[in-house]
Amino acid sequence: MIRFKALISYLLTICTAVSCQDQTEPGKPNIILIMSDDMGYSDIGCYGGEIETPVLDGLAESGVRFTQFYNGARCCPTRASLISGLYPHQTGIGHMTNPSENFEVHDYDVPGYRGELSQQTNTLAEVLKTAGYRTLMTGKWHLGMEHREQWPLQRGFDRFYGILDGASNYFQPVYPRGITLDNDPVDVQDSTYYTTDAFTDYAIRFINEGQEANERSPFFLYLAYTAPHWPLQAPKSVIDKYRERYHQGWEAIRGERYEKMIELGLVDPSWRLSPADGLDWDTLSSEKRADLALRRAIYAAQVDQMDRNIGRLVDYLKTNGLFENTLIVFINDNGACAEGGMLGGGKSEQLETKAGYFLTYGQSWANASNTPYREYKHWVHEGGISSPLIAHWPAGISASLRGTLINEYGFLPDIMATFADISGASYPSARKGKPVPSMVGESFLPLLKGSNAPIHDQPIFWEHEGNKAVRLGNYKAVMKWEENKPEKWELYDLSKDRTELNDLSGKEPDRLASFVAGWEEWARTHQVRPWEEMLARLRANQRRTNE
After folding, report:
1. 412 vs 34: CA distance, rounded Å
2. Whole-number Å distance between alpha carbons of 512 and 123
3. d(C-alpha 118, C-alpha 92), whole Å
4. Could you count the other beta carbons within 10 Å of the beta carbon of residue 244?
5. Which superkingdom is the protein from (predicted)?
6. Which residue in 26, 190, 321, 380 could disulfide with 325, CB within 3.0 to 4.6 Å?
7. Is the dihedral of CA 172, 96, 68, 382 positive or negative?
8. Under 8 Å between Cβ of 77 and 412
9. Is 181 in a helix, a strand, or coil?
10. What do you get for the CA distance between the two ends of the chain, in Å?
11. Cα–Cα distances in Å, from 154 out to 119, 138, 157?
12. Please, are residues 169 and 356 in contact by the beta-carbon 8 Å criterion?
């Protein structure tokens, strides 16, 4: 009997030790990738904005922020690069995906420009499945929708709820820009429906399905909000918070943000604020100022409501014991959107209704959203390609690093490399018997662990609609494409001049020449074609559509 009791005591000691080890050495983390849509670099509070984003600010305070993380300048090229770990032209989305209204308009009949995600790519979902992850997605897909083989469930996701196209009405999403659940269309009848809320509802539902089934596998959630992409639509109660905030105009907001960004350490005070790129607020009529202040208030409310929904997701994780070992990465897809002209597009009478589609706030406000940088969505100056990126992971980021800034630069393909690194996933070299390009990114896990060394020792590149850029170290060469005008490359030392105001191309022609040569070699080997040629094909497609 004594020996039996001793054996039981010994076994209990072993079990307790194993249990303690399980608690103190967590397994593979859950991974949540959250993407906002068409938001400016400085819109959220922890990046200098006046919009109330306490949840994102809190994640930044107990996580880390990147000051120099780059996107792909436009919605679907960014998503193609993000999901694949490749340059967008390698995926077949060198320009845009084909919209629901016309499945041929962005197919230019060359490999880099087919208007849909190539089947010879790996997706984040497919790669993370090799490490045993459940793969979930809610929100905006925008990677092809003509055939089901292009849809999320056919590209590695176990569950999907959202829109397949690039934008929809927030209150009343309807065919052909309606809602899909897994592979089936959903008829939205709820009078209180709002896409941002619904995307979060289903994100939580999908995670909870695994919890209720007592699944032990980690999950990957890709939550791709459409906020604050047009149309300008938000709940009235949230708009009311900002109704009086923007009557001072965009110049005042830019000045406030610039000073706050310096205080936060996001901007070096030696970087001059780029010149104003909007109309003079004081020259506008009182009616027009009221209209534009309202447009900006609705935009702010869209960001605010997104933050509230991220808070609901965080609360769910905490309540269910999932928060500590979940890596949350928040990023935006491109710079602020200047579409709709200087003063915005769409009918003013549709503001604060459930009607409308193309309702925008315009270039003058986008200039404030991108404080202090130049240009916007579409272009590859810093205002077009700079994203806020927050990484939060209590079990994986040291307490000594929390609240710090990471100043080493990275770009979208690094996310695939990082998630594969963290999860132990394998990146297949072939799909359906055909080769897949190798990952072009680098893992930024060392930066999350406290390294101060750059992760890129080779140049990184951009091309969108003829706009070109290449970065290596502190230097960046960039060119803004203009039809029927000669190419003019610029060169900047971003460590001294990230607002791109002191062009060094005349002073350092040899450096510029080497950068341009590198860009041309990259273009030749990555399915990039001259934009003049692709624009001609686009216009031919549009003419056929209109005939």
Report:
1. 13
2. 35
3. 5
4. 10
5. Bacteria
6. 26
7. negative
8. no
9. strand
10. 94
11. 10, 15, 7
12. yes
**Residue 545 neighbours by CB distance under 10 Å:** 11
Q: Which residue has the tokens 């590198």?
A: 518
In angstroms, rounded to a whole number, what is the distance separating the alpha carbons of residues 168 and 231? 8
SS3 label, residue 135: strand
Q: What are phi and psi of 390, to 5 degrees?
A: -115, 135
- Tokens at 5, concatenated: 């009791």
The reported pLDDT for the residue numbered 468 is 98
Structure confidence at residue 215 as a pLDDT band (50, 70, 90) = confident
Q: Is 514 helix (H, G, I), strand (E, B) or coil?
A: helix
Q: Are 104 and 455 in contact (CB under 8 A)?
A: no
pLDDT digits (tens, 9 = 90+) for 336-394: 999 999 999 999 999 999 999 999 999 999 999 999 999 999 999 999 999 999 999 99
* Pair of tokens at residue 141: 């897909």
- Residue 274 contacts residue 41 (beta carbons within 8 Å): no
The pair of structure tokens assigned to 280 is 């003079």
Whole-angstrom distance, CA of residue 282 vs CA of residue 289: 9
Distance CA 337, CA 74 (A): 9
Higher pLDDT, 14 or 142: 142
pLDDT score for 166: 97
Separation of alpha carbons 123 and 156, rounded Å: 7
**Residue tagged 């080997």 (tokens):** 525
Task: Indicate which residues carry an active-site annotation.
Answer: 75, 142
> Are 539 and 500 within 8 A, CB to CB?
no
Q: In what order do the strands lie in the sheet with 460-464?
A: 460-464, 467-472, 475-479, 489-493
Cβ-contact 415, 365 below 8 angstroms: no
Give yes or no for residue 24 having a pLDDT over 50. Answer: no
DSSP alpha helix (H) spans, 244-358: 250-264, 286-319
Q: What is the CA radius of gyration of the chain?
A: 24
HSE-CB for 441 with a 13 A CA cutoff? 29
φ and ψ of 409, to 5 deg:
-90, 155
Sign (positive or negative) of CA dihedral 276, 347, 229, 238: positive
In the chain, the amino acid numbered 496 is: K
